[in-house]
Amino acid sequence: MAHSWTQLSVRTSPASIDALANFLIERGAPGVVLKKNGLDAFFAAPHAGAPLRRDINRFVDAVTRLFPGARKPRLQWRVVKPENWEHSWKRFIKPRRVGKTFWVTPPWLEPPKFRRRRVITIEPGMAFGTGTHATTRGCMEFLEWVSERLPTGRFTALDVGTGSGILAIALAHLGAREVRAIDNDPVALRVARENCRANGVAETICLSGARLNAIRRRFDVVAANLTAETLLELAAALEKKVATKGFLILSGILHAKAGAVTRRFAARFRVVKRKQSREWVSLLLQRK
User: Fold this and answer.
1) Are 131 and 166 contacting, i.e. CB atoms less than 8 angstroms apart?
2) Which of 9, 129, 185, 205 could be disulfide-bonded to 179 (CB atoms 3.0-4.6 Å)?
3) Which of the following CATH numbers is that of domain 5-91: 2.30.30, 3.90.550, 3.30.70, 3.40.50?
4) What is the C-alpha separation between 269 and 250, in angstroms, rounded?
5) What would the mean pLDDT of 15-41 be, rounded to a whole number?
């Protein structure tokens, strides 16, 4: 039986929109629509109870303190009937150019005809990564740059915290011989597996819930689109997974934390590129 959905509408300063969207996706919102002065997020009604609302209120208060002078966000909750769910958010998701290589599109829409671009079909689900967020775009643009400097069909890659699988799929399209993708969320792995099959790269990508420390080999490319705190926690393990002169792509970093992340990896890696979009920073590092 179809259940109702709960819509959260937030009106806030543009500077805090991305941080809030990332948090809501991580808390299970399968649909987040970004707007000029806020966003709309959707949750399955049974899961939008008091604990979730309390956590969101705390996060909103914390984000507000990071941006002095920003107006206090306004939150509004309402129930969306099942028959209105698709109309409420699917109509906002359009095919999107990412970098110079890809169109990222949901499965219910035909991508625009563009011969020079590859199409990645991503089913928006309860897994982060649809190509719309600045952190995902930053990673994909760095993957393009790296793939042009590695031998096609010969390099290997590791995607840490694969989410929807979009980075692993991009790597397969960009010529990786083998892609290992890991995530500790079973829902993310299921979504990623479906997306890999839909994009015809299931044979190239090995998906698993393995812990990073359990992987004993090194890769030419390692990508980790997580958070600054998680990247710092996993720093030692991430360093060990990058081959000599290999590349490490780090994203999901708030600007205020970018310096700490850069310093942590400075002993063994040099910064090749740095990309910032609003408050989000992505780093492309190369092992010395």
Assistant:
1) yes
2) 205
3) 3.30.70
4) 12
5) 79
